[in-house]
Amino acid sequence: MQIQTYVYDEENQPQLLHQAHHVRLQGGFSNAEGFLTIQTATKRLSTEHAPDELHTLWQYIVDGFAECVAHGTAERYFPNTPVIIKTEQHVRTIRCTIDEQTVEAELNVWVGALYEAGITWCDWLNTHTHSAIASNLYTQLEQLKKATT
Questions:
Q1: Distance of alpha carbon 144 from its chain centroid, rounded?
Q2: What pLDDT is attached to residue 131?
Q3: Is residue 71 pLDDT above 90, yes or no?
Q4: What is the CATH number of domain 2-148?
Q5: DSSP state letters, 39-98
Q6: Chain-wide mean pLDDT for the chain?
Q7: 8 Å CB contact between 34 and 48
């Protein structure tokens, strides 16, 4: 499983996060736009474009995943849209559905992919801003990893 973050550059072109490390964003960090892809060996799920809300989307995904691990299910609405992000735990697998697209994988595979991509996102945020957004998300990812291992 692989989770990738795409950020739109100043020319409104999507760039993979690791390739966008030095990309100048339209209007700076406060306007970070983009989307996430979640890919398994057989399926690919893509979130909608998140105008000015990429950091919020990441927070919704991590919050929902943590709630799902704790309670078996979670639902969150995509930032500023009627699209729902739903996660469900079935024994040792997690199913994630976003706008009728579904991917499913083992819990440990999800946690590994979410942790790796989330830490990369936090590192990227830290290079563009020194706000508490990245440090709070980083702490939450660390707690989620400990709780599921």
A1: 14
A2: 60
A3: yes
A4: 3.30.2450
A5: E-SS-EEEPPPBTT-HHHHHHHHHHHHHHHHHHSEEEEEPTTSS-EEEEEEETTEEEEEE
A6: 83
A7: no
Structure tokens at 11: 């020319």
Residues 8, 51: Cα–Cα separation, whole Å: 9
Name which of 8, 85, 89, 99 is nearest 54 in CA terms: 8
- For residue 143, give every residue at least 6 positions away whose Cβ sits within 8 Å of its Cβ, in sequence order, or none: 66
DSSP conformational letter for 25? P
pLDDT digits (tens, 9 = 90+) for 74-124: 998 876 777 788 999 998 999 999 888 899 999 999 999 999 999 988 888
Contact 31, 25 (CB under 8 A): yes
Q: Residues 29-41: what's their mean pLDDT?
A: 77
Going from N- to C-terminal start, the domains of the chain cover 2-148
